[in-house]
Amino acid sequence: MMGGMSTAHLSGEPIPPRAPRWLRAIRWTLGGAVLALACALLGAAVFVASHASPPGPSFAWPFRLVQRTNVLVMGLDRTVSDRNPAIVYPVSRTDTLIAVTFDPRGDRIFALSVPRDTRAEIPGHGVQKINAAHAYGGVPLTLRTVENFLGVPFPYYMEITERGLVHLIDAVGGVTIRIDKDLNYDDNWDGLHIHLRKGNRRLGGMAAMEYARFRHDALGDIGRIARQQQLVNALLAELRRPRVILRAGRILRVFREDIHTNLTPEQLIALAWFGARLPRSHLVTMTLPGRFGASDWIADRDKAREVVARAFYGVDPSLLARETVDVVASPEGGADVRADALARLTALGVRVLHLTSGPLPVDVGEPTVVVHRGDPGAARAVAASLGARLLAREDAAAAADLTVVLPPRSPDPR
Question: Which domains does the chain have, with CATH numbers?
Answer without folding.
Answer: 7-298 (3.40.630.190), 315-406 (3.30.70.2390)
